[in-house]
Amino acid sequence: MAMKVKEVADLVGISVRTLHHYDEMGLLTPDETTESGYRLYSQDNLDTLQQILFFKELGFPLKQIKDIISNPSFNRQEALELHRQMLLDKRRRLDQMIDTVDATIQHHKGEITMTNKEKFAGFDFSQNPYEEEARERWGNQKVEQSQAKLKNKSQEEQTKMMNEMNVIYTRLAELRHGSPASEEAQAAIQAWYDYLNNNFSNYSLEVFKNLGQMYVDDERFTKNIDKFGEGLAVFMRDAMNIFANQQNK
């Protein structure tokens, strides 16, 4: 049975404003909207919302969650199993933090003496390991496939492909100060789309768009792409997004 936005908000314990925001950013769009403008959420929508909240609990930014769950290779059952493992890991770290807090209280009371190392047990400010795991499963799959195919080609073939890629990137770099929606920019990004599909794998428009977002989200991509011209990664992201949306019309 479909549920209205207020009913979903009350069921989950989040605000109506939050659900509206998810809808506006394309993260969670209800399957149905009545003639009166009421959002109606299906059971599938609720299952997706659960996935979103699991990822959010584990520290993923909303933009990254959107990229993950919109990826064609995303598998809900696999994600649930990953969520469980991640939450168990998080619980172990929280238990360690609680032990550190308890020990620190005893230390301040003079009941025990703590070393400086013990005072910081449980703290971890490294990159979110859950995000890295998710990117490996659902965000970087096409990139890994492409790299594997490239290694299987001869040196001559690789050189030819690199030269073709450099020509495309150089052309895009020349256009990066203009509009990514211009005919010239879209023709150049079409060449990039064709290049990827002809040489590596079948890139759907959605995956192509997600790849463009990765150019900006992953600093390794940004650094390499921007060698052709500062701001090129962002320009390509925008041009790829426009291309994919136009082709879907």
Automatic annotation (TrEMBL):
Span list, region Disordered: 136-156
GO molecular function, one term: DNA binding
InterPro entries in the cross-refs: DNA-bd_dom_put_sf, MerR-type_HTH_dom, MerR_fam, TipA-like_antibiotic-bd, TipAS_dom
Alphabetized PROSITE patterns for the sequence: HTH_MERR_2
UniProt cross-references to SUPFAM superfamilies, sorted A to Z: Antibiotic binding domain of TipA-like multidrug resistance regulators, Putative DNA-binding domain
Domain HTH merR-type, residue spans: 2-71
Keyword annotations of the record: Activator, DNA-binding, Transcription, Transcription regulation
Protein name: MerR family transcriptional regulator
Source organism of this protein record: Paenibacillus albiflavus
